[in-house]
Amino acid sequence: MLNIRTAERADCAAMLDLIKELAIYEKAPDAVTVSMDEFIASGFGERPVWGAFVAERGETIVGMALYYIRYSTWKGRRLYLEDLVVTEAERGAGIGKLLLDRTIAYAKEQKFSGMMWQVLDWNEPAINFYKKYEADFDSEWVNVSLNFGG
């Protein structure tokens, strides 16, 4: 039986495995440099910065939606979906939809002004999935980042 629930500290190892699986899928297998200690502290420490929902089949985590709150000076509080990932063996079973639906419901419960995320331009299965939600795709903005260490 499949269960969607709020992530707990004990889920972090399985969640990090999913993140690494996603990095391999996105052709960046060495890009995940976060340590387990940092991951746990950032989600369950004194000042957590992320939350997540997990999909659990039996006692095995098979998917997750990890999010954080961002602030737009134009729109106010918005939920940012950092990762929506389902393990390869479970893809196509509707788990991604259940996770995304739960995340959208949470954003609405919190009265956020909206939700946003990124998708790689070559990831057609994900793009087609998000189109079913009538999501807006923005080709106007360019991603910019600075990396400090690790």
TrEMBL record:
SUPFAM superfamilies: Acyl-CoA N-acyltransferases (Nat). PROSITE patterns: GNAT. Keywords: Acyltransferase, Transferase. InterPro entries: Acyl_CoA_acyltransferase, Diverse_Substrate_AcTransf, GNAT_dom. PANTHER family: DIAMINE N-ACETYLTRANSFERASE, GH14572P-RELATED. This is GCN5-related N-acetyltransferase. It comes from the Bacteria. It comes from Sphingobacterium deserti. GO terms for molecular function: N-acetyltransferase activity. Gene3D superfamilies: 3.40.630.30. Residues 2-150 form the N-acetyltransferase domain. Belongs to the acetyltransferase family.
